[in-house]
Amino acid sequence: MKWVFWRYNFNMLLAIVLVAAIVGSFLTVATEDENGVEWLKRKRSQCPNCLRPLGVVDLIPVFSFLIQGGKCRYCRKNIPIRHLIIELSTIVIFVVTFLVIQDRPIQEIILILGVMTFLFAITITDLRFQTLPDSFLFILAILGIVKIYILGAPTLIEGILGLALGAVIFGLIVVLSKGKAMGLGDVKLSSVMGILFGWKVLIVVLFFSFVAGGLLGLLLMLLKKVTPKSQIPFGPFLAGSTALFLLFPDLFKTFLLLLGLR
């Protein structure tokens, strides 16, 4: 029985790696523009330098980059290293996610992997372009609604209240700071987080996001990498906290216990 269980897990893990490699390859293309939609206009994948259509041998995730030495097979110009980083990071994210949630129902595993994909996508675009594409946020919102329907957590009412609370909190920050502290993309993302978690958990998740963002900002200032006036993308902190609480939902209960509220 142990052998069968190990072989089953190994086969599942191998499948996850293969799917992650394909998803990572998709993300390298989907995150090439700030709106996340340019890839829809392409008929075929092409070299970012010479624009020549790529063949099958050029599109094998990770291996094509390594075998070709990070260069286009046709024009021999360097392919951005971020392509390899994105593909490898996607594999790591999928494998870690699967190992953490492998005991959950298969529909929940697929759903969370989908959410992780687009959380990573908005992290990439926010770091590169300081923007959170509406296309990715819309897909996350749909996945949040699916989560409510399939898992019943949060409830529909909690999800609606979470959406409203996320919009109000970040909307006020945008208005009061005149757009200097946060952008509309952050408002939309926090609203999506409300759909995913409901209003109660959202408060804790946002708290973690602000703490993580504040600590990193302080560290970067101590290292003199940024100044108090520098703008640091906040999307990755929101995405990171969302991922953390999706993987470890009991963190919410633990936090309440620490505060003596449960």
Q: Overview of this structure, please?
A:
The chain has two domains: 1-103, no CATH class; 148-262, no CATH class. It contains ten helices and no strands. It has helices at residues 2-30, 63-67, 81-101, 106-129, 134-151, 156-176, 184-197, 199-222, 235-247, 250-258. Helix 1 (2-30) packs antiparallel against helix 3, helix 4 (106-129) runs antiparallel to helix 5 (134-151) and helix 5 packs parallel to helix 7.
Approximately what portion of the residues adopt beta-strand conformation?
under 5%
Provide the low-confidence segments as ranges: 1-6
Tally of distinct domains: 2
The helix fraction, in percent, is 55-70%
- Could you describe the largest sheet, including whether it forms a barrel? none
Question: What is the quaternary state of this protein?
Answer: single chain
Give the overall shape, derived from the CA principal axes.
globular
Strand-and-helix sequence, N→C? HHHHHHHHHH
Specify the structural class.
Answer: mainly alpha
Mean pLDDT: 88
What is the strand tally? Answer: 0
Overall radius of gyration = 20 Å
Distance between the termini: 40 Å
The total count of helices amounts to 10
